[in-house]
Amino acid sequence: MRTVRDIMSTDCVTATRQDNIYELAVLMKKHDIGFVPIVEGKKLIGVVTDRDLVVRGYAEKHSGSTAVSEVMTTDVMTIEPSLSVDEAAKIMASNQVRRLPVVENGNLVGVVAIGDLAVREIFVNEAGEALSGISEHEHRNPASAH
User: Fold this and answer.
1) Domain 4-140 has CATH 3.40.30.10
2) d(CA 121, CA 127)
């Protein structure tokens, strides 16, 4: 049985509460990512997504100097590295999340992204079903322009 530890990314780009939302946006651009765990030392205290920056930050007219704590999600779903890959896939699918921080004893040890699971059979089946549903919908309701 493959575990989350086998597939998780361990070279995570992180930030702290001392960072501001502009600095997070720069980090995301520099590393071509849309998700940054917020840590105190190694302890996970929250996450910020690119969507958080837009919806909770700039769309609320916060300046770039606004503290990370104003936009971060603190009630973060996490998983442990010993969890099976299939269980992680089920959690991601049922909660409709693309990334899960991997935590051991409260400390961030990695991140699992949906791309890490893409080759797993559960996602291949779900992707096939989704594509089938989309195709059926398009045949019933053809778009007027593409």
Assistant:
1) no
2) 10
The full set of domain ranges for the chain reads 4-140
Q: Long-range contacts of range 26-33, CB-CB < 8 Å, 24 or more positions apart?
A: 28/53
pTM > 0.85: yes or no:
no
| Amino acid letter, residue 49 | T
Q: Which two tokens stand for residue 63?
A: 């300046």
Q: pLDDT at position 123, please?
A: 47
The number of residues in the chain equals 146
What span, in angstroms and rounded, lies between the C-alpha atoms of 61 and 114?
31
Place of tokens 């104003």: 70
Residue with tokens 């059926």, as numbered in its chain: 136
